[in-house]
Design goal:
Elements: H1 2-8, H2 11-27, H3 29-51, H4 61-78, E1 82-88, H5 99-112, E2 119-130, E3 133-142, H6 156-169, E4 174-179, E5 185-192
Parallel strand pairs: 1-2
Antiparallel strand pairs: 2-3, 3-5, 4-5
Helix pairs in contact: 2-3, 3-4, 4-5
């Protein structure tokens, strides 16, 4: 549980958020209130995922979309140049815990923070059929800094996601990254669709 908690709510994330609230209290009290509200919403959405034993059967797409929405709301309050959208063609599906938030955190860290100016993160989920198999695709895209000459997809978080997908689904699941023509990166998870 402690390792899941550390992975989900990293201390620097909480410290940065609370420092942002503290600095906004005197100069921008409405923004400070909004940040606290988003932090509460994020913790409310993410704590149930931390209480589980981390097995793939406990993860749900709808719950992870709620967590991502709360997290991005908080990031938007901290970084006003950030906008985001979340669309899902399906109501819910099985999705191993904490996969989506890891991709969203990566988009903020590597796409939003290093870019100057407005940036957008788009999350989408859909079901599709390929070779007579029903699959789930979850995508996190940003128009941020992009790879900028860095090696793509070799970070510890991405390696961890790939290992978790492989241990749960074997070769039936994948995580891929691609540079986008307009700048930024799309991270795409494809796995067997199950209710």
């Amino acid at each position: 549980r402690l390792s899941v908690l550390a992975a989900q709510v990293e201390p620097h994330f909480l410290f940065n958020t609370l420092a942002g609230v503290r600095s906004a209290i005197l100069t921008e009290p409405l923004r400070a209130t909004m940040m606290v509200d988003h932090l509460v919403e994020f913790l409310r959405a993410s704590i149930p995922q931390m209480r589980g034993d981390g097995t793939a059967s406990q993860g749900r797409l709808a719950q992870q979309l709620d967590t991502a929405r709360a997290y991005l709301g908080l990031m938007q309050a901290r970084i006003p140049r950030l906008t985001f959208s979340i669309t899902s063609e399906i109501e819910d599906a099985a999705l191993p815990p904490l996969l989506l938030i890891s991709l969203v955190e990566n988009a903020v860290k590597h796409g939003v923070e290093p870019k100057i100016g407005p940036v957008h993160i788009a999350i989408s989920a859909r079901r599709f059929v390929q070779n007579e198999e029903t699959l789930l695709q979850v995508q996190v895209s940003d128009n941020g800094a992009g790879f900028s000459g860095r090696v793509s997809g070799s970070g510890i978080g991405l390696v961890n996601i790939r290992e978790r997908l492989a241990s749960t689904y074997g070769t039936s699941a994948s995580l891929s990254l691609k540079s986008l023509a307009q700048g930024g990166v799309a991270a795409i998870i494809i796995l067997p669709f199950t209710n």
